[in-house]
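Last lecture ended with a question: if I hand you only a sequence, what can you say about the shape of the protein? Today we answer it with a concrete record. The protein is (2Fe-2S)-binding protein. Below, first the input exactly as provided, then the predicted structure, then a couple of comments.
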Amino acid sequence: MVAMTVNGRPLDFDMDPRTPLVHVLRDAANLTGTKFGCGEGDCGACMIHVDGAALRSCLITLAEAEGRVITTIEGLSADRSHPVQQALVAEQTIQCGFCTPGIAMAAAALLRRSTSPSEDDIKAAVPNLCRCGVYPRLVEAIQRAGRVATRQETISAAPAPGISARDAARSVPALSDTAPPQMDEAE
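The predicted structure:
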């Protein structure tokens, strides 16, 4: 058994110790926010925090994670209220969303070190690949997250996730509000 702390919870895994941590998290712990991208450490989709440092989980084995503190995107904030998550939404940096968890984890680790990173700091600390090309908005989003983290700014444009059934129903007519299509008897 390999023991570690994942998102604040002690967990034990009875798996091959050579298994890449990305598979342990996704398949055994059901933490699917950590994405499997290239499997070679190039894309950053599987970025997590290991003892506070942003690392690619496809390059870490289960054995190497023993006794360590692991944080995944699910552990960054339970309600997506982390400044990085809010700023990524507010700055419209999310396209398909596949790379977003890895980017958020890399950016959060950077902002723990410096809440006022330069563009060069961001490019060095967030090497993630994004096929949708969000890079032009990414720098501003991460700098904005730093301002939010230090309470220099608030974000009201990025609400907490989810929408109530009542609010969703407002945009679509209720079935009782629409008449069924009429059929000609000849049809």
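Comments.
1. The domain at 83-149 is CATH 1.10.150.120 (DNA polymerase; domain 1).
2. The first helix runs from residue 21 to 28.
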